[in-house]
Amino acid sequence: MDDVPTPPATPPAASPAASLPVLQADCGNCFALCCVALPFAKSSDFAVDKPAGTPCKNLRQDFRCGIHTRLRDTGFRGCTVFDCFGAGQQVSQVTFGGRDWRTHPETTRAMFDVFPVMRQLHELLSYVAGALALPDAAPVHPELRLALARTEEWTRAEAQALADLDVAALRQEINTLLLRTSELVRAKVPGRKKNHRGADLMGARLAGADLRGANLRGAYLIAADLSGADLRKADLIGADLRDADLGAADLRDAIFLTQPQLNAARGTLSTRLPHPLTHPTHWT
Ligand code: SF4
Q1: How many CB atoms within 10 Å of residue 3?
Q2: Nearest CA owner, ligand 1 atom 8
């Protein structure tokens, strides 16, 4: 981890777990940053083109969505998939101390620059915290704890330092640890494991497949049929699961699976999930 950028003048966290920010969105404490800061291209997921820094046309004055309960029916399915991992409230309440971009327009540019960086930091924290919860990854836990503490420090840095952060370098360093974590965990699965890293599996028929311990890092599984598949201890980091059928699949102990990936997929209440992920409300 020697090449990881060092946060500026912020004392190391004495106990990373104690100071870890909340890694789930708390929209009530956020100034609707995803609805303003991010750009969206018109698609099946988002009904209109929206440039970065422009409020969504559905955003109300109180920072709430005017069509929140009708998003999927009105062409804004992507909004129900998105998750900021808690970056929104961190930027709103910590980095900018509760000053919103409407009443403090001088913060607007910096706030919108920082939000995508913070989202990546929170996503990394989520992966590292997940790896630290895996007993099989114990040999790499000391380095993961260090990475967690340093990344957490970054989430408390000032706006300009965050905007200048080489987050790609941080991602690369942490990814090395996550790769080692993956190898340690998947090595516990007996037999030959499938390697589909980065594979094009769009629309693949994998119903009932034995994918225990498989390497599915970055695999394109869009609209793949994974119903009834056994994905225990499979590494799903970065896998594209949009419209994949996860009905009755077994994802217990799958590693690096995120809630946004599940939100983008199809599934049923019989789909078995790793803790603490939950069945999306649109699953039946
Ligand atoms: S940025 Fe996150 S916390 Fe803020 S409105 Fe969007 S999802 Fe909610």
Answers
A1: 9
A2: 27
Q: What is the pLDDT of residue 19?
A: 63
Work out which ligand 1 atom sits closest to the CA atom of 83: 7
Amino acid at 131: A
Residue-level pLDDT at 129? 96
3-state secondary structure 59-105: ECCCCCECCHHHCHHHCCHHHHHCCCCCHHHHHHHHHCCCCCCCCCH
Q: For the whole model, what pTM was predicted?
A: 0.90
CA distance 203 to 165: 38
Q: How far is CA 281 from CA 61, 247, 269, 278, in A?
A: 27, 14, 10, 9
Ligand 1 within 6 A of 26 CB? yes
Read off the pLDDT of residues 192-203 as tens digits, 9 standing for 90 and up: 999 999 999 999
Atom of ligand 1 nearest to the CA of 30: 4
Q: Is the CB of 21 under 6 A from ligand 1?
A: no
